[in-house]
Amino acid sequence: MKDVMDMEAARIDDPALPGRKDSIFTKGKQKQQLKCDTDSIAGCVSQRACVYCGARVVLNPVTDAIHLVHGPIGCASYTWDIRGSLSSGSDLYRNSFSTDLKENDIIFGGEKKLARAIDELVQKYRSKLVFVYSTCIVGVIGDDLEAVCKAAANKHGIEVIPVQSSGFAGNKAAGYRAACDALLRVIDPGGGGIIKKGNSVNYLGDFNIAGEAWIIRNYLKRIGIDVNVVFTGDSTSVDLKSAPGAALNIIQCAGSMIYLAQKMEQIYQIPYLNISFLGLEDTAGSLRKIASYFNADAVISRAEDLIAGATAAVKPQIEWYREKFSGKKAAVYVGGGFKAISLVKQFREIGIDVVLIGTQTGREEEYKAINDLVDDGTVVLDDANPSELEKFMLEKGAHLLVGGVKERPLAYKLGMAFIDHNHNRKHPLSGFEGALNFAGEVYSTLCSPVWKYI
Amino acid sequence: MSDNTASCRNVNENPCHMCMPMGGILPFKGVEGAMVIIHGSQGCSTYMRRHIAEHFNEPVDVASSSLNEKGTIYGGDKNLKQGLDNLIKLYKPELIGILTTCLAETIGEDIDRIAGEYLQERGIGDYPLVTVPTPGYGGTHAEGYWLALKSIVARLGRRTGKWAGINVLVPNISPADIREIKRILRLMEVRFTLCPDFSDTLDSPFKRPYKKMPEGGTKPADIAAMPGAMATIQLGMAVEDGSSPGKYLEKEFGVPLFNLPVPMGIENTDLFMATLRQLTGKSMPECLERERGRLLDCMIDSHKYNFQGRSVIFGDPEQVYAVAGLCMENGIFPVVAATGGKGSKLPGLLKVRLAQSPVKCEILTAADFAGIKEKSKKMKANIAIGHSDGKYLTERDDIPLVRLGFPIHDRVGGQRLLSVGYAGTTMLLDRITNTLLENKQSKYRAAMYDRFYQNSEQYSHH
């Protein structure tokens, strides 16, 4: 592939707007903490979305719930079935329902319309659970979501949970919390006794994109651990209620779920472990971590067998790919921190150096971990914008970018390969199979014949 | 014909339209050196960018004023002004569009005042800031598109000397369609200003070095001269007068307006060509005559396959109207025609166009896909023509979809689909016919077996 360095012929103006300087640094050069977890700067074209976005991505995979967006049409339009979350049962979640508020509703209030909307949907779909998402103007026009939901719940004898996700009241991370609050309300068994199960875990922060949660469930089953409920991939309203019965919570996507885990520890005394099933190293490490928590010889030895067998099955092919990637460098810009951390290790497994790494919503402890992992000279940035991505990817000579839908066209215009590590991917990237798919995807893009022609 | 306004429903199930600011972005992308900032929460601009980027497979940068809780209480002046500063620093645009959102409008943000103050405070008095009020609840993306286009023309248009050419105002057709219309205009030796021209900006060739402000777009100076044109051709039959840039140019500057349907189909393309002939006195060159002849040939070759089609057509009003015409002239009689907005002019236009149809057509406005699905099933539609969200009909009821319009997010090449003019109509028609054929051929063996082999007793003679 042609050396990307000659792209520097384009003079790129210094993209570091005054307010952005603290959110970008090069490892080894700065002493202070990276500024993160704050509001975006106006006008800089952040890649972040809003509170509603955070809430919707966490809750939408609940398969048999009615997901009703209370607001004007846009929010629901842009989130209709845009994710690859799979279901083994209901596909009600693949619909996008909206109260489609119009000017009249803004003036006179939307509560009546919301109540009638819930009536209509419950009648048609007979679901036991409704999530009602608030959007920007609902907060402003003063609709009392709690009251409407409570009345509807009483009327229909089902659960109707408001999700306080007004787009402007915070950032995407606030959306995660709003979603977790909603989940806690569903989980609450309401006074009944909790039957604790033995070797069982709740698996938090996996949305079953391309069946990834199923893959992990299978691994754990093989080593003797039962997955009680997944938050929220392929989950149902009934499943969620059985969550308090697990002995342990394991968290993959910490960004979205740490808050839920902390609350569940507080309320149900369920401890939690951070794990990651991205990459061979982290998948093996996580299985070991879980096995050693349960401290049963049978589980531990089955885990070792699984790891040995599964690794042997994919290692040769991954080694073959690794040879093809020698000298290549990667840039990573993803949503959350846990993914970024795993990707650095995963790239190392296939012989690729990460020279730029950033997230939309990473937290302080995640950036610390990233900083420890990466080499000196790596650029780390929080809440980046396209100008910054362009500048630093070219400066650092990246050959490949990992990102989402908005980053893909930029990578391609810069003549760089791209890995789709986003919500609507159609092949799993978790576990041992996922590690092989990942290497395969890198190969398919980095080593494509098309780059010869640019 | 049956008219059905679904707006009495309380819930929208699977939307057939998007919101106003989304459409408002596109015309600015068709103006050279322009950028857009959306005054509201970040979610708005990010989601819209995502949709546009996925359709065009181009990087799409749209700024947000990142309106937050403080801003909603104390006013968003600071956010918007800071946003403008940063946008100018990062992109150095020649023109900036300021769109609003539900949030900004509901809290009463006066973007005209803020824009005026900004220009004064920064001492850049005549820098073009084009403000467009586009709350999400104010209309569909199609309505936002036209309002933004009108706002651009109104802001830039100046009383200038007359020039011997025409204005051509286009709806959200593909970059390939825009290039084709320009090709036809050049073949007819017509001088023109076409707006918005995003045929290059949203479909740029791979070229190094990458420029984050893509090349192309209608030049602001040319837009400024629009009031001096001989006439305006606007492809906006269903546009409300209040949002019609063509109407504006006619009322304010006396530029005669020719409001035409999008030139899809032989009738619409003939009308477009006849209008050009009328305006310029020039006749159609030989190569276009041959393209017309080839289209006729295609129509005849495919007429029997097409006659099997019962179409459900959905999307933006201009597209629905044009496609309905194409379907009528080929015997793919529409049985459902739907648009997500109130589309007030559309039913009237369709009733006239479909008057000769032997088949009843349900016309739906304020439609959602639950309603479209229900009617399509009832009317036994066997082919759908519209944007990607119509895959809902394929998944649920096995109605094959010919993807056309915006957004096309589950296939590539939406920006390269050519469907206008004689040549484009031929390509679109082939796609439709082939979809009917593929559907028939894949089901044909099983259907005949079930019907005649299994039930052979039914057909025995005495």
Write a structural description.
- The complex is a heterodimer of chains A (454) and B (462).
- Chain A has 454 residues and is an alpha/beta fold.
- Chain A folds into 3 domains: 4-42 and 313-453, 3-Layer(aba) Sandwich (Rossmann fold), CATH 3.40.50.1980; 51-187, Rossmann fold, CATH 3.40.50.1980; 200-307, Rossmann fold, CATH 3.40.50.
- Chain A is 44% helix and 15% strand.
- Chain A contains 17 helices and 14 strands.
- A 6-stranded mixed sheet of chain A has the order 1-12-11-10-13-14, sandwiched between helices.
- Chain B folds into 3 domains: 19-139, Nitrogenase molybdenum iron protein domain (Rossmann fold, 3-Layer(aba) Sandwich); 166-280, 3-Layer(aba) Sandwich (Rossmann fold); 290-448, Rossmann fold.
- Chain B is globular and about 85 Å long.
- Chain B has helices at 20-29, 42-56, 69-74, 77-91, 102-106, 111-122, 141-156, 175-187, 220-224, 245-253, 266-280, 286-307, 317-330, 346-353, 369-378, 391-397, 421-453, and strands at 2-5, 12-13, 34-39, 63-64, 95-100, 129-132, 166-169, 192-195, 231-234, 257-259, 311-314, 334-338, 362-365, 383-386, 401-403.
- In chain B, helix 7 (141-156) runs parallel beside helix 10.
- In chain B, the strands form 3 sheets. A 6-stranded parallel sheet of chain B has the order 1-13-12-11-14-15, with helices on both faces.
- With 462 residues, chain B is of the alpha/beta class.
- Chain B contains 17 helices and 15 strands.
- The chains are: A alpha/beta (454), B alpha/beta (462).
- At the A-B interface, helix 1, helix 2, strand 3, helix 3 and helix 4 of A face strand 2, helix 2, strand 4, helix 3 and helix 4 of B.
- Tally of separate helices of chain A: 17
Largest sheet of chain B: 6 strands, parallel
Poorly predicted spans of chain A: 1-13
Q: How helical, in percent, are the residues of chain B?
A: 40-55%
CATH-level-2 architecture of the largest domain in chain A: 3-Layer(aba) Sandwich
**Multimerization state:** heterodimer
Arithmetic mean pLDDT of chain B: 94
What do the pLDDT scores of chain A average to?
A: 90
Overall form of chain B? globular
SS-derived structural category of chain A: alpha/beta
In CATH terms, what is the fold-level topology of the largest domain in chain B?
A: Rossmann fold
